[in-house]
């Protein structure tokens, strides 16, 4: 994994952002990882993955035995 210092990030953020397009870049502060810079495409994929994971967990926890027929709901709504 590519890494840069906080100073390098401050000095040339455009270069770091360009490097982060394909793979995360670790930002080091006193030789310890302080954070990561990721490109837009990777960030969007991460967000999508987390949203899908949360949705799957919610579906797994639903008690379908308490459900009602669609026709019954539609009749109540008048559709």
CA-based gyration radius? 23 Å
Strand order of the largest sheet: 1-2-3
Q: What can be said about the biggest beta sheet?
A: 3 strands, mixed
Instruction: Quickly give the structural class.
Output: alpha+beta
**Number of β-strand runs:** 3
The residue fraction in helices comes out at 40-55%
Report the end-to-end length measured between terminal Cα atoms: 56 Å
Number of helices: 4
Arithmetic mean pLDDT: 94
The proportion of strand residues reads: 15-25%
Low-confidence stretches: none
Would you list the SSEs in sequence order as H and E? Answer: EHHEEHH
C-alpha geometry = elongated
Task: Provide a descriptive summary of the structure in words.
- With 79 residues, the chain is of the alpha+beta class.
- It has helices spanning 6-11, 13-19, 40-61, 70-77; strands spanning 2-5, 25-29, 32-37.
- The protein has a three-stranded mixed beta sheet.
- A hairpin with a 2-residue loop joins strand 2 (25-29) and strand 3 (32-37).
- The longest helix has 22 residues, at 40-61.
- It is elongated, with a radius of gyration of 23 Å.
- The model has no long low-confidence stretch (mean pLDDT 94).
């Amino acid at each position: 994994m590519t890494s840069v210092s906080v100073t390098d990030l401050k000095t040339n953020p455009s270069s770091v952002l360009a490097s982060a397009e394909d793979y995360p870049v670790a930002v080091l502060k006193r030789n310890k990882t302080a954070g990561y810079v990721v490109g837009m495409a990777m960030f969007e994929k991460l967000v999508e993955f987390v949203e899908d994971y949360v949705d799957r967990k919610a579906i797994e926890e639903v008690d379908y035995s308490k459900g009602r027929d669609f026709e019954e709901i539609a009749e109540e709504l008048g559709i």
